[in-house]
Amino acid sequence: MIAASAPVQRPGNAKLLVSEGRRIRHVPRSEFPDLLRPGDLVIANDAATLPASLFGRHAPTGEPIEVRLAGRDSLGMDEIKRFSAIVFGPGDFRTRTEERPSPPELAPGDQLILGPLRATVIRLMNHPRFISLEFQGSPAEIWEGLASWGRPIQYSHVPTPLALWDTWTPIAALPVAYEPPSAGFVLDWSGLKRLIERGVRFCTITHAAGISSTGDPNLDSLLPFDEPYRIPPSAARAIEETKSRHGRIVAIGTTVVRALEHSAAMFGGAVPPGEQMATQRIGAGSRLRIVSAVLSGAHEPGTFHYELLKAFADAGTLSRIDRELEAHGYRTHEFGDSVFIVRSAAQDGTARL
Asked: Could you tell me the pTM of the whole model?
């Protein structure tokens, strides 16, 4: 597969691999609405992306650092003082994440000067560059500092600096994601109109999509971190109604799968409205209670996104998908091509999340 290197959300030549049972086929991604049935419910993540990369210096040593915000305990707009974060030493996205130098030794109480923002290291979190930090100032001052100084988290496969609007899907709402819920790049208003005309319902949830790579194998093994999500009452009603009619629930992206399945595991198969914290990992042994199909990026084996797809397709099918993606030159990462996997009956399983 090829790393997508241009920040174009909906290129005209975007490809879509479709896996339904033992059948695999390729279609233009623009045909996605035509794959859906009347009575289906499509659910997307409407989180907008934070400018979560902050450059500055470590006050005790004066050394340059980059702080990548990675999580918090709430989606509340006023609850933005404390974050978990990954800290790098000198350099920027042009260097592969795996090759970025470590920051100076960090300790609780250290001050971080990040442009107009000041933050304090609260504690180290099981790794020398995974920290909890707290910003100084009011919520309004913190938001102003993030907006004026922060940049989107970026990786070396895209060689030019990203603008924040490159990372926002067409349905972006609350700015709570650390990297874009990029499966939603497939959406546009004409496509949504086609869904409705086909008798397909559409709704959104909000899930704080986290970072996809830390550059460190030990930290990467902990991904995805805990992520808050919110199910609005309208989405909860739509899910209940679709289930009662035995319609399919189609997730746009792995974050939607994680939120819906976490909620169902907590509440006995129901998805009530409200805010919760997704703490689970989904994989081959997971029992999916809600989601029938997922539209996702073309992910590489070994990533936690790829592991989640094992809940939708068995090992043999995923191996065939991998070979097809490679043979047809699919592009990976957030601006790449897509796969649409419909769960088979054999994937229902018995294991619980």
From this structure: 0.95
> What confidence tier does 181 reach under pLDDT thresholds 50, 70, 90?
very high
The answer to whether residue 353 is domain-embedded is: no
> What are the structure tokens assigned to 42, written together?
């499509």
Question: Number of structural domains, the chain?
Answer: 2
For residue 50, CA distances in Å to 80, 166, 210, 313, 340 come to 12, 12, 11, 32, 27
Where among 149, 174, 196 does a domain terminate?
A: 149
C-alpha distances out from residue 334 to 38, 42, 77, 85, 185, Å: 29, 20, 26, 21, 8
Residues 127 and 167 in one domain: no
Task: Indicate if 116 and 166 belong to the same structural domain.
Answer: no
CB atoms within 10 A of CB 287: 16
Report the CATH number at residue 131.
2.40.10
Can you tell me the mean pLDDT for 181-189?
96
Residue 352 domain-assigned (yes or no): no
* N-to-C CA span, the chain: 31
Q: In Å, what is the CA distance from 299 to each residue of 2, 13, 180?
A: 11, 18, 15
Name the nearest CA neighbour of 185 among 1, 63, 16, 26: 16
Based on C-alpha coordinates, what's the Rg of the chain?
A: 20
Residues with Cβ within 8 Å of 58's Cβ and at least 6 positions away in sequence, in order, are: 64, 65, 103, 104, 106, 110, 112
Contact 172, 46 (CB under 8 A): yes
Residue 346 is predicted with a pLDDT of 52
Peptide bond into 224 cis (omega under 30): yes
User: Among residues 149, 184, 202, which one ends one of the domains?
Assistant: 149
Count of CB atoms situated within 10 Å of the CB of 296? 23
Q: Distance between CA atoms of 258 and 227, rounded to whole angstroms?
A: 9
Q: Is 112 within 8 Å of 145 (Cβ atoms)?
A: no
The one-letter code for the residue type at 302 is: G
pLDDT over 60 at 42, yes or no:
yes
Residues 193 and 315 in one domain: yes
- Closest among 339, 228, 230, 239 to 294, alpha carbons compared: 339
